[in-house]
Model the fold of this input.
Amino acid sequence: MKHTSGKFISLEGMDGAGKSTHIPSIILQLQQRGVEVVSTREPGGTALGEKLREILLHEPMHPETEAMLMFSARREHIAQVIQPALARGAYVLTDRFSDATYAYQCGAKGVAAEKIMQLEQWVQMGLQPDLTLLFDVPPEVSLQRLSTARAPDKFEREGLAFFEQLRSSYLQRAAQFPQRFRVIDANQPLEKVKVLVADIIATI
Ligand code: TYD
Done:
């Protein structure tokens, strides 16, 4: 499944890395070019996907069940939102995509990479982001930020070892796919991170 006209951008990073904070300014920056921007998220992005999100974020379940539900939501998301938007030439900005499944369900929760790869091939049929911004912070910073934020979901209640796994899985993905990943040092003042993000978005 290839797209020719639009651009597909994903934002990744562990909880507390601050990725979501940058969404409004990225949307604005892209809109200033006169292109249509579709901003969405995973798990979620469709009515069914948002229902699955509620279950995924709050119900305990086997990590493989979690991986399969993530990809079920993703299948719907691609069919209903992402693919049609890219086909009409829009820029799609998604808060997380399948790199999150590799980091969370595979890296941190131990689902075999081979199984995730099979689901990925089935569901995405070659569709990958053109650009992935990875917001990288040390796990301690993430945990510190989360401790002062709103009530945590089940992923946000995990401990330091989980977050260390997440970070190294994400960095591994970035090293594996350097052509689409940009790693952003998000452990600095917000204004500095904003400038880094804007510079990268300007290149796509
Ligand atoms: P998140 O994107 O951090 O949203 P919010 O900022 O509202 O908390 O929450 C989504 C959670 O889902 C996050 O903890 C990571 C997890 N997740 C996975 O474990 N696997 C996936 O494939 C995706 C897309 C998300």
